[in-house]
Amino acid sequence: MKKLLLSAFIAFLPMTGMAATILGFQIGGGSWEQTPSGALVSTVGSDTLKETEKGEGYTYFSLEHPVPLVPNIRLANTKVSAVGNTVITSVEIDQTDATLYYEILDNVISLDLGITARNTDGQVAGTGSTTFSETVPLLYASAEIALPAGFALAAEINSISSGSDKISDISAKVTYTTSIGLGIEVGTRTQNFEVDIDNVQTDIEFSGLFAGVYFKF
Q1: Residue 4 has pLDDT above 70, yes or no
Q2: Residue 126 sits in which domain range?
Q3: Which residues contact residue 49 at a Cβ distance below 8 angstroms, ignoring those fewer than 6 apart?
């Protein structure tokens, strides 16, 4: 983990001279209709996940500023959940992100690059229960293409790979922003977890459509 943190920090260094040109923020949230798949091994037992769609909430807040060298910040929370086909009755994972990033481009095409610290808290339940928790660094990238009449296409990725452990979180969406800053977003999102945390081994995926609202200034 120390080598992973060092590698992510070194990758982040070349961007430290870039900052936003104006002060701005965005706050938003919505529902993600996610379908789980894959398998999980824990002290509760081994099981595959039932591929049943379920809606869970997500929220985010970002702040950009013109101060040189100081990165912009983005905070986000996402919940995923599932049930097993045999011995596992529930899997619940709560993810909280703190992302430091810089604007590389800010025009018709916008590009942000940075690093995310993701705290993952989870619980697996069956005849008994077990919990797991870990904070991992993820490389972060976000891009947006402005379209006429307030529409835009956007994509975002948080990802890391270290040995047999791999985490990825990829989304793509269409947004519409009104003249007063209120907006709506509709898109698709996929999370993959191939990790071994606190004796819980996962090779699972959550994917599906999401829709939300936001306000930006």
Answers
A1: no
A2: 2-216
A3: 36, 37, 38, 39, 40, 82, 83, 84, 85, 91, 204
